[in-house]
Amino acid sequence: MILLTGGAGYIGSHIAVVLLDAGLDVVAVDNLSNSNSASLERIRAICGRSVIFRHADIRNEEAIYQILRAHDVTAVIHLAGLKAVGESTAQPITYYDNNVVGTMRLVSAMTRASVKTLVFSSSATVYGTPAYLPLDEKHPVAPINPYGRTKYFIEEILKDLHESDKDWRIAILRYFNPVGAHESGLIGEDPLDVPNNLLPIVAQVAIGRRPKVHVWGNDYDTPDGTGIRDFIHVVDLASGHLSALSQLRQPGLLTVNLGTGSGSSVMDVIQTFKEVSGRPVPYVIDQRRVGDVATCYADPTLAKNLLGWTSTRSLTQMCADHWHFQMKNPNGYRGA
Ligand SMILES: NC(=O)c1ccc[n+]([C@@H]2O[C@H](COP(=O)([O-])OP(=O)(O)OC[C@H]3O[C@@H](n4cnc5c(N)ncnc54)[C@H](O)[C@@H]3O)[C@@H](O)[C@H]2O)c1
Ligand SMILES: O=c1ccn([C@@H]2O[C@H](COP(=O)(O)OP(=O)(O)O[C@H]3O[C@H](CO)[C@@H](O)[C@H](O)[C@H]3O)[C@@H](O)[C@H]2O)c(=O)[nH]1
């Protein structure tokens, strides 16, 4: 049995599908602070079987301990956390409590239950401003906001934990920019508030929920002047977790990028989305967003060599699947 924290969320729901499809059993823990339990019903519709759901907060060590014991959990995939960069600057203590303290309570419960296999969701945001590209795992880490620092501190805590007890099997996965949705259009990204990330904004503009995309700067040192990111299909990202679990059959700690290795600009995304949706995507050029870097993409070689994992889905596929979910669920999971 795999415990999936944050299992009702965007990435967690896609990982649940990949795990169930691989024949594994899943217990999902989520406090639903940024998700809707409707996603869990949709998982059942896709896979023909369910995840077990426990409504709990990862900071509740006793509750997590009881869940680990009751379900004979052998490994944990840990996604639960807060992820909005701007909010983390306004509410740093909330972020440190939820993400860092939450992870400490979780690993304490795991230690008590003798469950010592952990896959952790980190982020390319730990690299901060790139000193060189593509970003490999040896690139220095220097996050530039509290959210990024929670990920960095958790990585360091997990390294200390592994140093202290070599029985632990830990995979730290640094995600680049997850986008898209399951091909069924049943699960996808459903931001509860105004989205910050590019793809959900573009999708809401294409469907008419917002008038236009604000392109944050077209004066970067990139071919079209707009920011470049390594967008990765969420289903490819999810399958990377299955590969990491297989690799953790031996004790050890690994830190691996999950990205495609190629970058697309904001204008590439807008153009591709326009093509796959057949809808206009009006945009306006605006000031640069504070804290943004010009270009960020992964060196995915280690994931290939160590995990035998590579991404396979194109930007067109990412936009098409994102659009499919948006069309099927114009108001997200609300009303589902
Ligand atoms: N989406 C991205 O761009 C991105 C990039 C890099 C890393 N990540 C990381 O991946 C993970 C999942 O991200 P996502 O995009 O699916 O976000 P999400 O908000 O959709 O999912 C996170 C889930 O965790 C739950 N949660 C939050 N705090 C909790 C707590 N204390 N106890 C129990 N549940 C809690 C939320 O309700 C939500 O369902 C996060 O750790 C995030 O930092 C995301
Ligand atoms: O309305 C918008 C939103 C974004 N952008 C641009 O689009 C690009 C991508 O932005 P966004 O989707 O917000 O992603 P990032 O800023 O790269 O950050 C994401 O990707 C990181 C990993 O690389 C994660 O750590 C962060 O949590 C996650 O928000 C950037 O150039 C932005 O300036 C716009 O032009 N207009």
TrEMBL record:
State its cofactor. NAD(+)
| Tree of life domain | Bacteria
Pathway membership, UniProt: Carbohydrate metabolism; galactose metabolism
The broad enzyme category this protein falls into is isomerase
Q: Does the keyword Transport apply?
A: no
GO function term, MF aspect, one: UDP-glucose 4-epimerase activity
A cellular-component GO term for this protein: cytosol
Q: Which UniProt keywords apply?
A: Carbohydrate metabolism, Isomerase, NAD
Q: Name one GO biological process term.
A: galactose catabolic process via UDP-galactose, Leloir pathway
**Could you tell me which residue ranges the NAD(P)-binding domain spans?**
3-321
- Which reactions fall under this protein's catalytic activity? UDP-alpha-D-glucose = UDP-alpha-D-galactose
**Matching InterPro entries, A to Z?**
NAD(P)-bd_dom, NAD(P)-bd_dom_sf, UDP_G4E
* Protein's UniProt keywords contain Ribonucleoprotein: no
Entry EC no(s): 5.1.3.2
- NCBIfam families for this protein: galE, PRK10675.1
Query: What family, per the record?
Result: Belongs to the NAD(P)-dependent epimerase/dehydratase family.
Subunit architecture? Homodimer.
Name of the protein described by the UniProt record? UDP-glucose 4-epimerase
Top-level taxonomy = Bacteria, Pseudomonadati, Pseudomonadota, Alphaproteobacteria, Hyphomicrobiales
Gene name, please? galE
